[in-house]
Write a structure and sequence with these properties.
alpha+beta, SH3 type barrels, 2 domains
């Protein structure tokens, strides 16, 4: 196409590169590199996410242990109830390690402390229950319950 004294033109060099597949190799290598880097970043993000979940689970577990310890101390102190309430409704989405669990409408609870928790919208309550095998033993559960779901019992009527 050209003589040996003239350098190849740009068009000739481009034609030669296209002929031997160099652009396809370069583009393929670039795509493989991008996919590899993306995969590594996803692995790193997944690992960080798992580490955060583990840390949160450990913190919740520690909080639950502290809460149970505080509940045992309250039971041992024999904190006198301020008044009694009947549960009028049980919220649908009501969970957490500080809440009073397994309550139903009509249960009677002792209020140990008023205005606790976020926005002071809960009462610290206790409920005495029989053990599952219905023997004479009784257990005490302590936890928060929303004030809006409780109705104070008049002492004269109880």
């Amino acid at each position: 196409m050209h003589d040996n004294h003239q350098p190849p033109t740009f068009k000739e060099r481009l034609s030669r590169l296209r002929y031997n597949g160099t652009p396809e190799i370069a583009i393929g290598s670039l795509i493989i590199t991008v996919v590899g880097v993306d995969y590594m970043l996803q692995l790193r993000n997944d690992q960080q996410r798992q580490d955060m979940v583990k840390q949160l689970e450990m913190q919740v577990h520690r909080d639950a242990i502290i809460s149970r310890k505080e509940d045992k101390e309250l039971i041992q102190k024999g904190l006198d109830p301020k008044f009694r309430c009947v549960i009028r409704t049980v919220p649908d989405q009501f969970d957490g390690h500080k809440v009073l669990r397994n309550c139903k409408v009509g249960d009677i609870v002792d209020v140990l402390e008023e205005g606790v928790g976020p926005d002071r919208m809960y009462n610290l309550c206790s409920i005495t229950r029989r053990t599952p095998n219905n023997d004479k033993k009784q257990g005490v559960s302590i936890g928060w319950f929303p004030t809006s779901c409780l109705q104070k019992i008049d002492e004269a009527n109880s």
